[in-house]
Design a protein that fits this description.
By secondary structure, the protein is an alpha+beta fold. The protein is 18% helix and 42% strand. The strands form two sheets. The protein has a five-stranded antiparallel sheet, covered by helices on one side. It has a three-stranded antiparallel sheet with strand order 2-7-8, with no helix packed on it. Strand 5 and strand 6 form a beta hairpin. The radius of gyration is 16 Å and the shape is globular.
Amino acid sequence: MACEFKIVRRVEFGDTDMAGIVHHAVFFRYMEAAETAFFRSLGLSIVSRQSQPPVGWPRVHCECDFFAPLQFEDEVEIHLLVARKKSKSLTYAFRLHRVAGSERREVARGRVVVVCVTALGSKMKATKIPKAIADQIQVATARQLA
C-alpha cells in the first residue's frame, strides 16, 4: 500500500508569467501531475476503467500557500502525501521544493480533496472508492505529514 509519491519536473517557459515566474495556477497542474503519476505507480489510471462502472476524481477543494517563486528551467520536486482517506474521498497534501543540486527549498504547500464519482450521462454521483483502488492507498503517518 502506498501513502506518498514524488516526481521531479523542470519548469517550462509556458509555465511562467510576464514577470518570469511560475504562474500560481500552474502549481495546481504540478499537483495534478503528481496525482496522475501516483496512480500510475500503483498500476492504475486516474481515468479508471478498472472498475465497473468507471470512476472519476473531481476536485472539491484546492488550496496552495506560496513561499518562494519558481522560474523557467528550475527543477521542482512535487511530493504527494495521502493525508486522509474516507470511503468516498481522498485528501492529498503536497509539498513543492525547488531542487538545485543538493539544495532544496520549499516553495509551496498545497492541499487537494478529490471525491470518487461515477458519471451517469452528464451527472456525477459520489460513490465508494472501489476496493481494488482503496486497498492500494493508505494514509501517511502523522510524522510524514508534519
